[in-house]
Specification:
Helices cover 23% and strands 28% of the residues. The protein is α/β, with parallel strands linked by helices. A hairpin with a 7-residue loop joins β1 and β2. α3 crosses α4. The longest helix has 14 residues. Bound molecules: NADP nicotinamide-adenine-dinucleotide phosphate. NADP nicotinamide-adenine-dinucleotide phosphate binds next to α3, α4 and β10.
């Protein structure tokens, strides 16, 4: 149980004591907001395969142990630090905490800088909103600012039914692109309904042939979310001068006439997250939730995303 002694407040959190550890529940001191910080009393938390990279020590960030898993989520403001102007106690809020604060979402409280936080979309129940930040920020920044997707461009989105992918399909469609998506058979209709013009079932079709049959010149931009060796084939379907952003950063194929970006890392950004909220509220982006796990089953939530076949997002309900 959480210690409610206000002079020595603690919280329950999912932690590891060393890289590679199994995650376990621990009772830890509740963080205190410094200048510019907000302390969030957590309601929901986002889950992604990146949480396992953190667990294994494969995401190169300086972390202290015991390390609290989880990087993003939602809740209500519990207290604010000096100089905070945009939020007050009890306000609903959601945020991604990296790089300034790199732990804490799978916990009863999480500390973030005010500048990383935004108002969650009112149309979303707060637990569900907690599943949005990393996927939403990634889809928005990569398509709008890095790939600079424009009207009538042909954009390939792989892992299109997953957490980032299902939002990216809708975002690219909203930007006026012709969206080509790769998914497994169970997700073909889902991704079509989200706005993909061409959906390729990578389990039964030759992706390269299918794309060249419809777009003989290749595609203009690619947002790749597939971490397997199979992702190397996507390089060959880019039109000359095209750009591929490789989210897992594992593609090794090269081509002199295209640009391949492998060093992208999503960062906390309250202004961008507010833009994502506005798009969700306007009905431009629809959030799909595969499953919400209770707080005590956080390890099952992590295993679920590691299956690699989720439809939309997985979340943890904290309260
Ligand atoms: N660099 C960054 O800052 C950054 C930010 C966000 C995410 N990422 C990375 O981007 C990747 C995607 O993230 P995510 O959260 O969207 O993942 P996710 O939700 O776990 O993606 C699952 C999807 O991957 C699809 N998939 C699995 N194997 C596939 C294959 N061989 N070919 C095509 N699709 C396949 C599945 O499709 P089916 O079930 O339909 O088969 C499923 O819909 C992850 O590696 C993540 O770590 C990086």
């Amino acid at each position: 149980m959480t210690n409610t002694d206000a002079s020595n407040p603690t919280m329950r959190a999912w932690t590891i004591d060393r890289y590679g550890d199994m995650i376990h529940l621990a009772e830890l001191p509740r963080p205190q907001p410094g200048p510019g910080d907000i302390l969030i009393r957590m309601t929901g938390a986002e889950v992604g395969d990146w949480d396992d990279l953190v667990r294994k020590g494969e995401w190169p960030m300086e972390r202290q142990f015991p390390l609290i898993l989880g990087l993003a989520g939602s809740g209500n403001v519990a207290s604010v630090g000096r100089g905070v102007t945009r939020f007050k106690n009890d306000d609903p809020v959601y945020s991604y905490s990296y790089p300034l604060y790199d732990n804490g979402a799978w916990a009863e409280y999480m500390l973030v800088p005010e500048s990383y936080a935004a108002k969650p979309p009112p149309v979303l129940e707060l637990t569900r909103a907690g599943a949005v930040p990393i996927a939403g920020l990634t889809a928005h920044e990569t398509l709008v600012d890095i790939l600079e997707v424009k009207k009538h461009e042909v954009v390939l989105i792989t892992a299109a039914s997953g957490g980032v992918g299902h939002l990216a399909v809708q975002m690219a469609r909203h930007l006026g692109a012709h969206v080509v998506a790769t998914v497994g058979r169970p997700h073909v209709d889902f991704v079509s309904e989200l706005g993909a013009e061409t959906v390729i079932d990578y389990t039964t079709q030759d992706v390269r042939q299918a794309i060249h049959a419809k777009y003989p010149n290749g595609v203009d931009k690619i947002l790749n979310g597939v971490a397997s060796e199979a992702a190397n084939q996507y390089v060959s379907v880019l039109a000359g001068g095209g750009v591929l952003l490789d989210l897992p950063g594992t593609i090794i194929a090269t081509r002199p006439d295209v640009r391949i970006i492998k060093d992208y890392v999503v960062r906390g950004d309250g202004v961008r997250l507010q833009a994502v909220s506005d798009l969700i509220d306007a009905g431009v982006l629809r959030l799909e939730i595969d499953e919400i796990f209770p707080f005590d089953r956080a390890p099952d939530a992590l295993n679920k995303v590691l299956d690699k076949h989720v439809r939309g997002k997985v979340a943890i309900k904290i309260r």
